[in-house]
Amino acid sequence: MEARKRIGVAVAGFCSALLIAALFSLLWLWIHRQRRNASKSKRKDVEKGMGLAPFVTGKKGCVSVIDFKVLEKATGNFGESNVLGEGGFARVYKALLDDNLVVAVKKLDCSGLQADTEFENEVNILSRIHHPNIICQLGCSSEGDAKLIVYELMENGSLETQLHGPSRGSALNWHMRMKIALDVARGLEYLHEHCQPAVIHRDLKTSNILLDANFNAKLADFGIAITDGTQNNNKIKLSGTLGYVAPEYLLHGKLTEKSDVYAFGIVVLELLLGRRPVEKRPTPQSHSIVTRCLNSQIDRSYQT
């Protein structure tokens, strides 16, 4: 009986050791794969940057300054047929350079102080951060009030267009939606946990999440992003997009990394439900995606 007990203990110990070894092996493989993917992404970004070398005319800090005329020509004189998207102060164009390198060019109208500030802010922040789930800035340019930022091209456009455009999300299966959510989470983790000081995006939304040819998601549009420790500056105005702004920021001006996390939660709800954060509906109860989910949860609790 005693011998059987000893054998049982030995077998249990061996199995436990084997399980721990297997878990460590899986953990090592996962870390190795993550590092390899990050290295590949970084190498691709470097290669794209090197592809722009013939058009570089100087440096703005550590950012390459590209000949304005070259970018003007590459976008067909900023022609309508090359427009990829637009926002408050900017339009984004597809640009084909002479060496067949295709990039995206954001053109900002900086006749106003805010647009000029956002241009400087985005160029400065993106020059300091590098991650597979953050858009890669390849260079910048300016002429008069027109300021340009050059990025890698994201072939599948914005998550907003994929979810709410003509296809209504048909190109995104559940596996892809989960992967996009994880990509965004990794991008935010990098900004909040690995940047020194931490970066708060302040305008995370589906239109600022871009998808490459393989539907890998990257955070974009850092015009109003700030670094942790500067959010209490009186000069910083309340910013963001209706439906994505955290209640504590909207009501009390309290801005932290958690404000981005709230916006991320809204993005996840959009991925799950295929609805916009705020929609015009006949009843106020269904006006907000958050209200809709809370009401559904309350109804379910009453039913049980």
Report on the structure:
The chain has a five-stranded antiparallel beta sheet, sandwiched between helices. It has 304 residues and is an alpha+beta fold. The chain is 45% helix and 17% strand. Strand 4 (90-96) and strand 5 form a beta hairpin. It folds into two domains: 50-152, Phosphorylase Kinase, domain 1; 159-303, Transferase(Phosphotransferase) domain 1 (Transferase(Phosphotransferase), domain 1). It has helices at residues 2-51, 68-74, 113-126, 159-164, 174-194, 247-252, 257-273, 289-303, and strands spanning 56-60, 63-66, 83-86, 90-96, 102-109, 137-143, 146-152, 199-200, 209-211, 217-219, 226-227.
β-strand percent reads 15-25%
What overall geometry do the principal axes of the alpha carbons give?
Answer: globular
User: What name does the CATH topology of the largest domain carry?
Assistant: Transferase(Phosphotransferase), domain 1
Give the mean pLDDT: 81
The radius of gyration over CA amounts to 23 Å
Please provide the count of β strands. Answer: 11
Residue share in helix: 40-55%
Can you identify the CATH class of the largest domain? Mainly Alpha
CATH architecture of the largest domain: Orthogonal Bundle
Can you describe this structure in just a few lines?
This protein is of the alpha+beta class. Helices cover 45% and strands 17% of the residues. It has two domains: 103 residues, Phosphorylase Kinase, domain 1 (2-Layer Sandwich); 145 residues, Transferase(Phosphotransferase), domain 1 (Orthogonal Bundle), CATH 1.10.510.10.
